[in-house]
Amino acid sequence: AIVTKVEDSTGNVVVDTGISQAVLLKSEQIPGEVLRVDDRIKVFATQVNSGEARGPLVSLTRIHPNLVKRLFEAEVPEIVEGVVIVKNISREAGSRTKMAVYSRDPEVDAVGACIGNKGARINLIVDELKGEKIDIIPYSDDVCEYVKAALSPATVIDVELLGERQTRATVSAD
User: Which distant-in-sequence residues (6+ apart) come within 8 Å of 74 by Cβ?
Assistant: First the structure.
């Protein structure tokens, strides 16, 4: 989308999606991001309500985890082909994202495919998200291994499974 207007009073932004005009609310923008008229940005449509008198009402966001997923789909052909699967995404928009990936083909490194040669693929996405840190971790059906990977780069000493959706992890003091 192309930013066509920035409302100073509210911080909301009007964008041209190429099909219609839509509003990107301040609450749906990446914290700390400054948008200006004529900026090209990627947005994610979370909802389309048809039946409105002036056409469909589209809800846009730049903070939803699925925006990150769609950006990776645009850059990583292995995801589009279904070889690499995005299993989970956790995101603090503007700060960091952790994305768990799995490869259906043992010959394909899922993490490496998402990062790209010399970081080429992930760097394009980091630039679009204004420097947001993105950690790509390997998905595992073993909950303890998965939690260990999710907590990286921290050094995990032990992971204890407490319940179906609860673990206790011990990490080094540093």
Answer: none
Residue 130 in tokens: 């204004």
Question: Are 124 and 146 contacting, i.e. CB atoms less than 8 angstroms apart?
Answer: no
Decide: 78 and 116 in contact? Cβ < 8 Å.
Answer: no
* Amino acid (one-letter) located at 99: M
- Which residues are registered as beta bridge partners of 45? 60
Cβ(96)–Cβ(116) below 8 Å: no
- This prediction has a pTM of 0.87
Give the integer Cα–Cα distance in Å for 48 and 19: 13
For 59-114, what is each residue's pLDDT tens digit?
A: 899 999 999 999 999 999 999 999 999 999 999 999 999 999 999 999 999 999 99
Q: Which residues contact 169 (CB under 8 A, 6 or more apart)?
A: 147, 148, 151, 156, 158, 159, 160
The DSSP call for residue 81 is T
pLDDT tens-digit series, residues 106-151? 999 999 999 999 999 999 999 999 999 999 999 999 999 999 999 9
User: What CA–CA distance (Å, rounded) separates 39 from 13?
Assistant: 11
- Helix 120-128 crosses helix 65-75 at what angle (to 10 degrees)? 140
